[in-house]
Amino acid sequence: MAIAPRFAKWSPVAAATLFMAVTHAAPAAQPLDNGRPAAAIVDSDVRQEEALSTTEAGKVITAIDRTRENIGAVRKITKLDMVDIVFLTDAARSEGGPPPAIENKVKQHQEDVAELRKEIEANALLFNAMDSRRVQAEDVLAVEFDNPGKVVIYAAAKPPK
User: Fold this and answer.
1) pLDDT at residue number 5
2) Taking the CB of residue 101, how many other CB atoms lie within 10 A of it?
3) Where are the domains of the chain?
4) What does the pLDDT read at residue 37?
5) Nearest-5° angle of CA 144, CA 48, CA 138?
6) Any signal peptide, and if so, which residues (predicted)?
7) CB 32 within 8 A of CB 41
8) Distance from CA of residue 135 to its chain's centroid?
9) Which residues are 49's β-sheet partners?
10) What are the 10-residue block averages of pLDDT along the chain, 161 residues in total?
11) 52 with 92: CB under 8 angstroms?
12) DSSP 3-state of 51
């Protein structure tokens, strides 16, 4: 009869406890309490601008039409040089929401836009960039990948004061 090694059989409780201890004891790769702004945490330049939805309608509608393919790009993003958040101030909920042309396009791509918002919330880089400007995912109408390393986020919201 062979003698079993001392730890050959772990109880499920012991294994789960060890797993939790190891995963929670690991130091965070980027501590959030170091006083650096979120833009530095995401290691990207986060810019914001204000625009009218009537001025940007063509770009926003084109970006909404490309939402399905942009979802895949959002899932893969791990590094960006620039995150540009465009606040469409006249499309904010407090102003009555987006104009009909944009609102109809959002409704037409309703499921894709909802999935895009979830993917943005799940992407630490984009979530932190938006959080640094107090943008909620539910206000995002579309994203546009302007060129490699840059994303434009169109939000129906007003910038924080």
Assistant:
1) 53
2) 13
3) 70-161
4) 47
5) 60
6) 1-25
7) yes
8) 10
9) 86
10) 52 52 41 45 78 94 96 91 95 94 96 97 93 94 90 95 81
11) no
12) strand
